[in-house]
Amino acid sequence: MNESLDLLVVMAHPDDAELLCGGMLIKTAALGKRVGVLDLSSGEMGSSGSGEIRRQEAARAAEVMGLAERRSAGLPDAELENDQASRLVVAQHLRELRPRVVVTHWKVGRHRDHRVACELVRDACFLSGLRKLDVEGRPFRPRKLVYATAFREDADPPDIVVDVTDQMEAKLDALSSYTSQFEGVTGIGEVYPGGNRPLFDQIRAKMAHYGSLIRVDYGEPFRVSEPLVVEDLSALDVSTY
Question: Measured between alpha carbons, how far is 160 from 155 in angstroms, rounded to an integer?
Fold first, then answer.
Protein backbone atom coordinates (compact mmCIF):
# COMPACT_ATOMS: atom_id res chain seq x y z
CA MET A 1 0.00 0.00 0.00
CA ASN A 2 1.29 3.46 -0.90
CA GLU A 3 1.94 5.88 1.95
CA SER A 4 -0.72 8.59 2.08
CA LEU A 5 0.00 11.99 0.58
CA ASP A 6 -0.40 15.20 2.53
CA LEU A 7 -1.27 17.11 -0.63
CA LEU A 8 -2.09 16.18 -4.23
CA VAL A 9 -2.32 18.60 -7.16
CA VAL A 10 -4.61 17.29 -9.92
CA MET A 11 -4.35 19.20 -13.18
CA ALA A 12 -5.34 18.68 -16.80
CA HIS A 13 -1.86 18.70 -18.37
CA PRO A 14 1.82 18.38 -17.51
CA ASP A 15 3.18 21.86 -16.63
CA ASP A 16 -0.19 23.11 -15.25
CA ALA A 17 0.86 22.27 -11.70
CA GLU A 18 4.21 24.03 -12.10
CA LEU A 19 2.62 27.15 -13.57
CA LEU A 20 -0.23 27.45 -11.10
CA CYS A 21 1.33 26.26 -7.86
CA GLY A 22 4.87 25.01 -8.38
CA GLY A 23 6.23 27.25 -5.64
CA MET A 24 3.69 25.93 -3.14
CA LEU A 25 4.58 22.34 -4.07
CA ILE A 26 8.29 23.01 -3.60
CA LYS A 27 7.69 24.76 -0.29
CA THR A 28 5.40 22.03 1.05
CA ALA A 29 7.80 19.25 0.05
CA ALA A 30 10.67 21.08 1.75
CA LEU A 31 8.63 21.09 4.97
CA GLY A 32 8.84 17.29 4.93
CA LYS A 33 5.32 16.74 3.62
CA ARG A 34 4.49 14.07 1.05
CA VAL A 35 3.22 15.91 -2.03
CA GLY A 36 2.30 14.67 -5.47
CA VAL A 37 0.88 15.58 -8.87
CA LEU A 38 -1.69 13.70 -10.93
CA ASP A 39 -1.71 14.86 -14.56
CA LEU A 40 -5.08 13.92 -16.02
CA SER A 41 -3.60 13.72 -19.54
CA SER A 42 -0.14 13.65 -21.10
CA GLY A 43 -0.72 16.85 -23.06
CA GLU A 44 -0.38 14.96 -26.31
CA MET A 45 -2.55 17.42 -28.26
CA GLY A 46 -0.30 20.40 -27.58
CA SER A 47 1.00 22.27 -30.60
CA SER A 48 4.58 21.46 -29.60
CA GLY A 49 6.17 18.30 -28.36
CA SER A 50 4.39 14.96 -27.89
CA GLY A 51 2.86 12.98 -25.09
CA GLU A 52 6.10 11.08 -24.51
CA ILE A 53 8.25 14.22 -24.56
CA ARG A 54 5.95 15.91 -22.07
CA ARG A 55 5.98 12.88 -19.77
CA GLN A 56 9.78 13.03 -19.76
CA GLU A 57 9.69 16.76 -19.05
CA ALA A 58 7.18 16.19 -16.23
CA ALA A 59 9.47 13.61 -14.65
CA ARG A 60 12.39 16.07 -14.66
CA ALA A 61 10.19 18.80 -13.15
CA ALA A 62 9.02 16.38 -10.44
CA GLU A 63 12.64 15.88 -9.35
CA VAL A 64 13.19 19.63 -9.14
CA MET A 65 10.07 20.05 -7.00
CA GLY A 66 10.84 17.15 -4.69
CA LEU A 67 7.59 15.30 -5.35
CA ALA A 68 6.93 12.02 -3.60
CA GLU A 69 4.66 10.92 -6.46
CA ARG A 70 3.85 11.95 -10.01
CA ARG A 71 1.61 9.99 -12.31
CA SER A 72 -0.72 10.38 -15.28
CA ALA A 73 -4.34 9.30 -15.30
CA GLY A 74 -4.08 8.60 -19.04
CA LEU A 75 -7.22 10.52 -19.98
CA PRO A 76 -7.34 12.09 -23.49
CA ASP A 77 -5.93 15.59 -23.90
CA ALA A 78 -8.40 18.15 -25.31
CA GLU A 79 -11.18 15.59 -24.74
CA LEU A 80 -11.54 15.51 -20.97
CA GLU A 81 -15.07 14.77 -19.86
CA ASN A 82 -16.73 14.70 -16.46
CA ASP A 83 -18.33 11.34 -17.16
CA GLN A 84 -18.59 8.33 -14.88
CA ALA A 85 -15.74 6.45 -16.53
CA SER A 86 -13.37 9.38 -15.97
CA ARG A 87 -14.61 9.91 -12.42
CA LEU A 88 -13.84 6.28 -11.61
CA VAL A 89 -10.31 6.63 -13.00
CA VAL A 90 -9.62 9.65 -10.81
CA ALA A 91 -11.31 8.06 -7.79
CA GLN A 92 -9.01 5.04 -8.15
CA HIS A 93 -5.95 7.30 -7.94
CA LEU A 94 -7.42 9.11 -4.94
CA ARG A 95 -7.97 5.83 -3.10
CA GLU A 96 -4.40 4.79 -3.83
CA LEU A 97 -2.75 8.11 -2.92
CA ARG A 98 -5.17 9.17 -0.12
CA PRO A 99 -4.27 12.89 -0.05
CA ARG A 100 -5.53 15.02 2.81
CA VAL A 101 -5.75 18.10 0.54
CA VAL A 102 -6.40 18.21 -3.21
CA VAL A 103 -5.63 21.25 -5.38
CA THR A 104 -7.08 21.64 -8.86
CA HIS A 105 -8.03 24.22 -11.51
CA TRP A 106 -10.34 27.16 -10.95
CA LYS A 107 -13.96 26.73 -12.03
CA VAL A 108 -13.63 28.63 -15.30
CA GLY A 109 -10.81 28.92 -17.80
CA ARG A 110 -9.77 29.49 -21.37
CA HIS A 111 -8.98 25.82 -22.00
CA ARG A 112 -12.06 23.59 -21.78
CA ASP A 113 -9.93 20.85 -20.22
CA HIS A 114 -9.27 23.15 -17.27
CA ARG A 115 -12.97 23.81 -16.72
CA VAL A 116 -13.86 20.14 -17.08
CA ALA A 117 -10.98 19.09 -14.83
CA CYS A 118 -12.31 21.24 -12.00
CA GLU A 119 -15.73 19.56 -12.10
CA LEU A 120 -14.24 16.12 -12.68
CA VAL A 121 -11.89 16.38 -9.70
CA ARG A 122 -14.58 17.77 -7.41
CA ASP A 123 -17.00 14.98 -8.25
CA ALA A 124 -14.34 12.25 -8.07
CA CYS A 125 -13.29 13.45 -4.60
CA PHE A 126 -16.84 12.90 -3.39
CA LEU A 127 -17.43 9.59 -5.16
CA SER A 128 -14.16 8.15 -3.88
CA GLY A 129 -15.66 8.12 -0.40
CA LEU A 130 -18.65 5.95 -1.33
CA ARG A 131 -18.37 2.42 0.00
CA LYS A 132 -20.32 0.88 -2.87
CA LEU A 133 -18.38 2.64 -5.65
CA ASP A 134 -17.13 0.14 -8.23
CA VAL A 135 -13.46 0.96 -7.66
CA GLU A 136 -10.81 -1.08 -5.87
CA GLY A 137 -9.46 0.07 -2.53
CA ARG A 138 -10.85 1.40 0.71
CA PRO A 139 -13.26 4.34 0.44
CA PHE A 140 -11.49 7.67 0.86
CA ARG A 141 -12.46 11.31 0.62
CA PRO A 142 -9.95 14.20 0.85
CA ARG A 143 -10.43 16.62 3.71
CA LYS A 144 -10.15 19.78 1.61
CA LEU A 145 -10.46 20.83 -2.02
CA VAL A 146 -8.54 23.97 -3.01
CA TYR A 147 -8.60 25.88 -6.30
CA ALA A 148 -5.46 27.40 -7.83
CA THR A 149 -6.33 30.74 -9.43
CA ALA A 150 -2.99 32.06 -10.74
CA PHE A 151 -3.32 33.87 -14.10
CA ARG A 152 -7.13 33.82 -13.94
CA GLU A 153 -8.45 37.32 -14.60
CA ASP A 154 -12.04 36.27 -13.82
CA ALA A 155 -11.45 34.79 -10.35
CA ASP A 156 -12.34 36.79 -7.27
CA PRO A 157 -9.49 37.94 -5.01
CA PRO A 158 -7.76 34.91 -3.46
CA ASP A 159 -8.70 33.50 -0.08
CA ILE A 160 -5.13 32.28 0.39
CA VAL A 161 -1.79 33.50 -0.93
CA VAL A 162 1.25 31.31 -0.26
CA ASP A 163 4.54 33.15 0.10
CA VAL A 164 6.84 31.56 -2.51
CA THR A 165 9.58 34.18 -2.43
CA ASP A 166 12.24 31.63 -1.47
CA GLN A 167 10.90 29.10 -3.99
CA MET A 168 10.57 31.38 -7.02
CA GLU A 169 13.84 30.39 -8.70
CA ALA A 170 13.16 26.68 -8.16
CA LYS A 171 9.67 27.15 -9.62
CA LEU A 172 11.22 28.60 -12.76
CA ASP A 173 13.78 25.79 -12.82
CA ALA A 174 10.92 23.27 -12.78
CA LEU A 175 9.21 25.12 -15.61
CA SER A 176 12.47 25.11 -17.54
CA SER A 177 12.09 21.34 -17.81
CA TYR A 178 9.35 21.93 -20.39
CA THR A 179 11.52 23.11 -23.25
CA SER A 180 8.98 21.81 -25.78
CA GLN A 181 6.38 24.23 -24.42
CA PHE A 182 8.14 27.31 -23.14
CA GLU A 183 11.32 27.90 -25.09
CA GLY A 184 11.25 31.22 -26.94
CA VAL A 185 7.62 32.15 -26.21
CA THR A 186 6.13 35.25 -24.57
CA GLY A 187 2.81 33.69 -23.58
CA ILE A 188 1.16 30.31 -23.40
CA GLY A 189 -2.28 29.06 -22.38
CA GLU A 190 -3.65 31.41 -19.74
CA VAL A 191 -0.32 33.19 -19.24
CA TYR A 192 -1.02 36.15 -21.51
CA PRO A 193 1.94 38.01 -23.00
CA GLY A 194 3.17 41.10 -21.18
CA GLY A 195 4.25 43.05 -24.24
CA ASN A 196 7.44 41.49 -25.53
CA ARG A 197 8.56 40.20 -22.15
CA PRO A 198 9.91 36.65 -22.20
CA LEU A 199 7.49 34.14 -20.70
CA PHE A 200 9.40 33.65 -17.48
CA ASP A 201 9.58 37.41 -16.92
CA GLN A 202 5.79 37.52 -17.30
CA ILE A 203 5.37 34.67 -14.83
CA ARG A 204 7.65 36.45 -12.38
CA ALA A 205 5.62 39.66 -12.80
CA LYS A 206 2.34 37.88 -12.05
CA MET A 207 3.79 36.12 -9.01
CA ALA A 208 5.06 39.52 -7.81
CA HIS A 209 1.51 40.89 -8.06
CA TYR A 210 0.11 38.08 -5.92
CA GLY A 211 3.00 38.49 -3.50
CA SER A 212 2.17 42.18 -3.10
CA LEU A 213 -1.24 41.17 -1.72
CA ILE A 214 0.51 39.70 1.34
CA ARG A 215 3.42 42.20 1.31
CA VAL A 216 6.11 39.78 0.08
CA ASP A 217 8.10 39.49 -3.14
CA TYR A 218 6.28 36.53 -4.73
CA GLY A 219 3.09 34.61 -4.00
CA GLU A 220 0.70 32.04 -5.46
CA PRO A 221 -3.08 32.51 -5.07
CA PHE A 222 -5.79 30.01 -4.11
CA ARG A 223 -9.50 29.95 -3.33
CA VAL A 224 -11.65 27.67 -1.21
CA SER A 225 -15.41 27.22 -0.95
CA GLU A 226 -15.66 27.14 2.84
CA PRO A 227 -14.67 29.63 5.55
CA LEU A 228 -11.20 29.18 7.04
CA VAL A 229 -10.65 28.75 10.77
CA VAL A 230 -8.64 31.39 12.67
CA GLU A 231 -7.75 30.40 16.22
CA ASP A 232 -6.39 33.77 17.36
CA LEU A 233 -7.66 36.96 15.72
CA SER A 234 -4.99 39.01 17.47
CA ALA A 235 -2.29 37.08 15.58
CA LEU A 236 -3.50 38.00 12.09
CA ASP A 237 -0.72 38.91 9.69
CA VAL A 238 -0.50 41.18 6.57
CA SER A 239 -0.66 44.85 7.43
CA THR A 240 -3.82 46.81 6.59
CA TYR A 241 -1.84 50.08 6.33
Answer: 13
* Alpha-carbon 62 to chain mean position: 13
CA distances from residue 172 to 17, 202, 223, 225 in whole angstroms, order as listed: 12, 11, 23, 29
What is the C-alpha to C-alpha distance for residues 78 and 95, in angstroms, rounded to an integer?
25
Q: Where are the domains of the chain?
A: 7-225
Output the pLDDT for position 190.
82
Residue 43, number of CB atoms within 10 A of its CB: 28
Pairing of strands 144-148, 160-163: unpaired
Its CATH class, for the domain covering 7-225, is: alpha beta
The whole model's pTM is what?
Answer: 0.95
Q: Are the C-beta atoms of 73 and 93 separated by less than 8 Å?
A: yes
Full strand arrangement of the beta sheet holding 160-163: 69-72, 35-39, 7-11, 101-105, 144-148, 219-223, 160-163
* pLDDT at residue number 241: 86
